Amino acid sequence: MSPEHGARRSHVIMVEPALTQLAKLTASETHRLDRAIVDISVNPELGTEVPGTLLHDHADAFDEVRVIYYVTALRTIIISGSDLALVV
Questions:
Q1: Which of 79, 73, 3 has its CA nearest to residue 41?
Q2: Exposed (0-12), middle (13-18) or buried (19+): which is 78, by Cβ within 10 Å?
Q3: Contact 65, 79 (CB under 8 A)
Q4: Which of 38, 56, 81, 83 could connect to 47 by a Cys-Cys bridge, CB 3.0–4.6 Å?
Q5: What's the pTM value of the predicted model, to 2 decimals?
Q6: Where are the alpha helices (DSSP H) in the chain?
Q7: pLDDT at 12 over 80
């Protein structure tokens, strides 16, 4: 990889109920969630695997955001839920 290019990001898709949750967020909350999603798109294995499922659970203590997602075989990230103002 040449120095002018960053890490390859995964494609991110949000599904219900994440879309419903997203519609209720303020601009500030959306910005905090966006930063967490960028982190996940660069490193899909960032979250902790949820035992017995295909889900990952990523909690960002700094932005107080929690994202529940899974990664497909083609490294597409499907976000199924999120939680803001989470105390970790």
A1: 79
A2: middle
A3: no
A4: 56
A5: 0.77
A6: 18-23, 27-42
A7: yes
